Amino acid sequence: PYFPEYVRPIVPDPGLDETYQNLTPERIEQVIKSVIGKKAAHLKAMLETCVKCGLCAQACQWYLSHDGDPTYAPVAKVNMTLGEMLRRDGKVEPEFIRFASRVVHTECNICHRCSMYCPFGLDITAVIRLVRRICLILGVVPQRQLDQNQSFVITLNQVWLSQNDYIDALLWQEEEGRAEIKRFKIPIDKEGAEIMWCPLGAEPKTTVEHIYRFAKIFNVAGTDWTMSSDKWDVSNMPMFLNDYFTMIRVVRGVFESAKRLRVKRIVITECGHANYAMRGIGPVTLGYKDLPFKVQHALEYFDEIIKTGKVKIDPEKRVKEPVTLHDPCNSIRRSGLAESFRSVARALCEDFRDMQPNREHNFCCNSGGGLAALSNWAAHKARGNRVKAEQIMATGAKKVITPCHNCHTGIGEVIRYWKLPVKTTYIDEILAEAMVIPDELKVESG
Asked: What pTM does this model have?
């Protein structure tokens, strides 16, 4: 009832429904004022600069997918959360923090599309992140997001994976690979290698096929590569919750591994937000002017080895059915990798079809900004991305390339909820199947 027009279905979540009950108005006011601090005047000026033109609303998939419900407009999300905190000078109730946390954690992906269209250049996503910071310090965060964040605090990976289990997964996939490729190797802690490949935490725990496919590609391409035994997870939930200290610990840890092994390049797996954390926020926050190594997204590496002929594509194994490509926000809108992604897609697919709009104008998957962790909110997220379902169907594609784990989750939820006759796929999945294995690397059958 803070905003009577805000009507939502109930989605049980202990992180929102229980934690706020322990708060006091005094504690809330203290945290709000400590986070906002000297930025109050700047933030008030930002809110007053907004002329309510509606361009941010037209840019938001949540607003469009809910038939123009004004409470889903980015400007409304800002006014209902930070705006209310400023108007009341931080004197808000525990129930309000619960409400604000639901808005900023489950109805915004921090995808930056609204900010891109703002005629005044107002960074709406920065405001949402600030409110998330307040909610994090107060401990009112959707449970599964907070669980992943705590996993990073303790283990520096997102899935509570021990170092022994991680290394065991690598050795297991190396053993599997030797049945297909001669001298198949997953090097661990090899000093002086050209490339250090870094996975996400979920890959060695639940989707080990990615480790197998990347290792297969590296082996066939003849790449001088390695993996680190420690500080290896490039995903970064703390970045989404604005846990600054842990966010930087994660990035610093990966950089320390690269320095320890004296590699020339870090290649990260198919992930958008890891790309942004490792190339955008991380280096600047750590004070780097120039990194002592290069950081690449996996698809930049794939584009390189295809164009240089280090791997050859079997024409018979190129994807025949119509394929479209989802543009991960943190790789495209924030990092400008659209053409590398399309170069690889066209090399592997006979009938590639772009979504409309595309590249930096594409819509978010609705699992970005940490929402991929919220499987209990899946229907809510999919309802909020009807526009993505319409985008996909308009292409006539039978497959959607989702070159990001979070996007893979989000698009999968959209496909299941809206019952689309489409399947998702990763680029490593297509490339590992379509590339030619040289005769000298083939394991003889029998």
From this structure: 0.96
For residue 281, the enclosing domain spans 154-311
Which candidate, 216, 274, 275, 233, places its Cα nearest to that of 430?
216
Residues paired with 319 in a beta bridge: 349
pLDDT at 1 (0 to 100): 53
C-beta neighbour count of 187 within 10 angstroms: 18
The verdict on 251 and 345 lying in the same domain is: no
Q: Token digits for 86?
A: 């400023």
Q: How far is residue 108's CA from residue 145's CA, in Å, rounded to a whole number? A: 14
Q: First CA to last CA across the chain, in angstroms?
A: 71
- For tokens 């479209």, the residue is 324
Domain boundary among 100, 120, 141: 141
The residue among 414, 402, 397 whose CA lies nearest residue 326 is: 402
Q: How many CB atoms lie within 10 A of CB 55?
A: 17
| CB-based contact 92:6 (threshold 8 Å) | no
pLDDT of residue 446: 59
Q: Flag whether 360 is in a domain.
A: yes
Helix or strand or coil: residue 304?
A: helix
Half-sphere exposure of 404 (CA within 13 A, CB side): 30
CATH number at residue 82: 1.10.1060.10
Cα 159 to the center of its chain, rounded Å: 15
Give the other-Cβ count within 10 Å of 208's Cβ: 17
* Residue 103: half-sphere exposure toward Cβ, Cα within 13 Å: 31
Radius of gyration (C-alpha) of the chain in whole angstroms: 22
Same domain, yes or no, for 106 and 133?
yes
Find the mean pLDDT for residues 193-206: 98
Rounded to an integer, the average pLDDT of 5-21 is 97
Q: Is the distance from CB of 92 to CB of 110 less than 8 angstroms?
A: no
